[in-house]
User: Fold Tryptophan synthase beta chain from Pelotomaculum schinkii.
Amino acid sequence: MSETKVLLTEKEMPRAWYNILADMPNKPKPPLNPATKEPMVPQDLTPIFPLELIKQEASEERWIEIPDEVMEIYKLWRPSPLCRARRLEKALDTPAKIYYKYEGASPAGSHKLNTAVPQAYYNKKEGIKRLATETGAGQWGVALSQACNFFGMECTVYMVKVSYHQKPYRRSLMHVFGSEVIASPSDRTNSGREILKKDPESLGSLGIAISEAVEDAAGRDDTNYALGSVLNHVLLHQTVIGLEAREQLSKVDNYPDVVIACCGGGSNFGGATFPFAYDKIVKGAKVKLLAVEPSACPTLTRGRFGYDYGDVAGFTPLLSMYTLGTEFMPPGIHAGGLRYHGESPLVSQLVHDGIAEAVAYGQTAVFDSGVLFARCEGIVPAPESSHAIHAAVEEALAAREAGESRTILFNLSGHGLLDLPSYDAYMEGNLVDYPLPEENLKKALEKLPKI
Ligand SMILES: *Cc1c(COP(=O)(O)O)cnc(C)c1O
Assistant:
């Protein structure tokens, strides 16, 4: 009997992150300063980011060494396991081999700690005492709270108000690690007060919370800002996922035909797939890279490719990406981590150039597959991750249809143990799909900045 779990030793962990900017046939257009609309220069970012991360954001070095201090903390949960989903294969009666990389085993319960730790580390090293950030459903806020705690830093998290009230346990976790958690929009910032003046009942959004956190960080010398997805340096740090997975598969003499990950801002997708994108671009490997998004927030499949802001107030640089427009208000689907109007410029460019592809699914089908996975493999997946599971199930069924074996690898970005109310809603038959009407999409896209 061959193995179900493929493990690496600590000695076999990658010692450097893979930077795909070194190898992309077309690099994304540069970020623009929001005020001048000219390409950003490093000084534009020094009020909110440490120099080392600004350097990584634009670096074209293929490998960037992981600092020892970061390696030491990574070892608390890395290398993460690669598992063969044999019981799921059997349930689907498929000749395909299904592997998943399990990032839910991190202390944060998701992949987000892979970048939270180096971000806190570089800030600390450059004398920063406090980080400000935003969080939607709370996964990023938890990860950054843990990372700041490891390095003895303070952390303030602006949490989208609707989640602040609906996801009390992630808020509790942030408190355990010593963070201050503020419901956004708040009266702590000009941008928050501005929104509250117009709409005192505002439930908040990620775009608003980002404005608040950036304003907080820009206003204090001892404070920087940290972002959990979208930016190049974030995806860079996440490549430990794909580097490990590629090594683990090679230990069982295998290589994937398709690599799948869900896509919100693109960080776990980039992390899982970029090492395979390297094989594809540089070595001509035939591997399909598939990003999965919710049909309620279909950035890659129906958004526009162009410049847009990352936040509502327009404080962030203009990024070249697929976007639904900052005014786009995604419906309250249960995969909170996938409700973002924009997308990583790196992932956007790869999809634009046909190196990666994207597909969108409704949440009821996604939960069907998430529950099937839980019942077969014993792990309750995060609703975000279930998007990847559903695509893997579709690929496995296509393999059955075609009567051919293939190797499917997907990233299980997190567990769903703090998302049980969503599972209750599913079990009670209260989940609905929100296909996005063409009209709403058109209206949101009309508001894109003209560059
Ligand atoms: C935040 C999150 C996502 C979405 O973010 P990406 O940057 O697209 O990876 C997906 N899965 C989980 C478990 C998350 O916490």
Remarks:
- The radius of gyration is 20 Å.
- The first helix runs from residue 42 to 45.
- The pocket of pyridoxal-5'-phosphate is lined by residues 110, 112, 139, 229, 262-269, 337-338, 382, 384-385, 413-414 (CB under 6 Å).
- The chain has a mean pLDDT of 96.
